[in-house]
Design brief:
This protein is elongated. The chain has 17 helices and 13 strands. The protein has 411 residues and is an alpha/beta fold. The longest helix has 24 residues, at 177-200. 38% of the residues lie in helices and 15% in strands. It folds into two domains: 5-219 and 364-408, Rossmann fold; 246-335, 2-Layer Sandwich (formyl-coa transferase, domain 3). The relative contact order is 0.15. Helix 1 packs across helix 8 and helix 8 crosses helix 9 (211-219). The chain has a seven-stranded mixed β-sheet, with helices on both faces.
Length: 411
Amino acid sequence: MTNLKKIKFGGENTGPLRNIKILDLSRLISGGFLTSHFADLGADVIKVEDVKRPDALRYMTNNDISVQWKVLSRNKKSLALDFTTNDDGRELLFNLVRQADALVENFKVGSLEKFGLGPDVLLDINPNLVIARISGWGQTGPYSHKPGFGTLVEAFSGFAAKSGFPDSGPLLPNLGLADMITGITGAFSVLAAINDVKENGGKGQVIDLSLLDGMTSFLGADPAICKATGRPIPRMGNKGEVAAPRNLYLSKDGKYIALSASMPAMAHRLFRSIGREDLIDDPKFRTNEDRVRNSDELDDIIGAFIEQYNAKECLAFFDDAGVTIGPLFDAIEILEDPHVQERGTYVRVDDPEIGEMVMNNIPARFSGTPVSIRTPAPNHGQNTRDILLETGLSDEQIEQLEAKGIIRCGK
């Protein structure tokens, strides 16, 4: 891990979205993941948190460390403000709305309206504002009023039903998959709407983002496949649904190797490399459809070859043969990989609270507008004073607001 690149906070913001301001009123992962893409690419993202109830993601800890908060909230600012019950707090938020390009929220459907912050109010204040509303089931439909977390959507969507092995039960993902998918979809959608305002002369609008719709888009053609076959997609473990061979295989030293030879030319290259050129014309393996149909037998043949060698030997052998193969890493092993270290896929940063920590780097590399991890995740209300000073308030006014409990100026 010591070979991971070390980066320092600070430096000039040269990201391509540095002219965009986002107000993030969301909690937990979906909205936070959406706005994290904007923040990493240079946007001014203000995390608006309740004075008394900070984002619950701060309290989802590992070894008492808010790791997810620190990763998803880097490059953001925190404003602690009572905007749900206090008229003065709402006026402060309205001042920020006037300057913002977009506002992101993921409250239960109808909550914004209950707070006096419905889209009609916000768009009257700023007709160019893009409002992204994230919910479990969407702003419309019979289930719109129901609370919805990613776990429910991952089960409802069909994802869990197809995940797992044939002899196991359905399998839920062990991460916030639906939230993250919706966050990515939402970031792209919000940017598109902002572009329409800035480049096409368009007006602000509301973007209705549901975890369910994001998850079903991720599943792509599954319903069409089921209609075509007349049956649900079966649980297949690590096999591919429409291509073979594709699986994890156990090496002699007990390590797993991932192999995918889904294209015909790659499958033929694999067969030749293991001395089984005869499989190319074997009726059971001649076409991709044949290989999928007889994937168990094909996996036995490949597995029998791989289990004769240690993982390192297998990887070198198949690399030399030009076969698509790679190791199975856990989240610690990947940090020791020389490619990951050279690319800076993960980096070391000095967090002001806990010292050195590891986090994923920004995935996109821009040649003309470089992006960077500029600031650590903020403490609750850390940027309140500076943000309000930029809106024209004086130090005295800010002190009075804090004394009334309308804002919190953290450190």
